[in-house]
Write a structure and sequence with these properties.
single chain; 296 residues; alpha+beta; Cytochrome Bc1 Complex, Chain D, domain 2; 2 domains; 42% helix; elongated
């Protein structure tokens, strides 16, 4: 299969900023729309409208994708275990039916998880954000996960059994991804919040864009496709091939910078790095000049 050509800069910018219709009202409406099983009709954009689709004997989709990313449904056999884990770790906030209604019956107090898709559930659990350390916090921090990978899949399998949806759990293939294209796409779509170095930054009302350091490749895909927290959900405007490019850039150049010009200095940026260089350079020259003057 041929790789899809890269979208021109101005065309991609129009998709990201405006979407199908150039209207702030339409963007706001899209942000509040309930996720449906098929988020977009565009091929190879994170849903079973993909190049490759596999189904089981009952006709249920078990995996789909293409040469860039493969999405796999969590095994349905884990659903029983997942329900037990959910009741033990999640039901106190999200309710026993995962609909966001806890035992006291306060509807809307916590997010409704039904219909969000396995990738969403898996991301929040495997990044350690859920179960929440502080359910009343404005934003959950990334931390060591309480549940194992298998347990996270089990919870995702049970929640998804309540109302099957997508995207499923992604496995990116980065061998043919393009770092250069990924850098350009990252600068256009991600750097405004996460910074060009991927270190994250403060947002409004006590929220923040987290650092992208030490994040597994599949979780980067999950974040892009599901839009956790304040992050927008990228579906119809980024193909799987473009997402793989971004992931390769994040997991190589951001997480393991080469710094061909010398010391990286933590990626502080050209102004701060220039100041450090000037301070050290001028300071060294001043010491040398002082030494020469003393000898004279």
């Amino acid at each position: 299969m041929k790789r899809r050509s890269r979208v021109p800069f101005f065309a991609l910018a129009a998709l990201v900023v405006a979407g199908p219709v150039v209207s702030l009202a339409s963007v706001a409406a899209a942000a509040t729309t309930t996720q449906t099983p098929f988020q977009t009709g565009r091929a190879n954009a994170g849903t079973p409208n993909s190049t490759i689709v596999h189904r089981n004997a009952a006709g249920q989709v078990v995996s789909y994708g293409n040469s860039a990313i493969t999405y796999t449904a969590p095994p349905s056999a884990l659903a029983t275990l997942g329900q037990s884990l959910f009741l033990e770790n999640c039901a106190s906030c999200h309710g026993t039916a995962a609909n966001g209604v806890p035992a006291n019956g306060t509807s809307g107090a916590y997010p409704n998880l039904v219909g969000l898709g396995p990738a969403t559930i898996d991301f929040w659990i495997e990044s350690g954000r859920m179960p929440a350390a502080d359910p009343r916090a404005v934003q959950a921090n990334r931390r060591t996960p309480r549940l194992s990978h298998q347990q996270a899949l089990a919870v995702a399998a049970w929640v998804n059994s309540l109302s099957p949806s997508y995207p499923d759990i992604p496995s990116p293939n980065l061998s043919s991804a393009n770092v250069s294209d990924g850098a350009a796409l990252f600068a256009l779509n991600c750097a405004a919040c996460h910074t060009i170095e991927g270190d994250g930054d403060a947002l409004a009302a006590g929220t923040f864009a987290p650092s992208l350091r030490n994040i597994p490749a599949y979780q980067v895909v999950e974040a892009i496709r599901t839009g956790p927290g304040n992050m927008p959900r990228f579906t119809g405007n980024l193909s799987d091939f473009q997402v793989a490019d971004i992931v390769k850039y994040v997991t190589t150049e951001i997480q393991h910078p080469q710094n061909p010009g010398g010391f990286g200095l933590g990626g502080l940026g050209p102004v701060a790095e220039g100041f450090v260089g000037l301070l050290l350079g001028v300071g060294l020259l001043a010491l040398v000049g002082f030494w020469v003057g003393e000898r004279q």
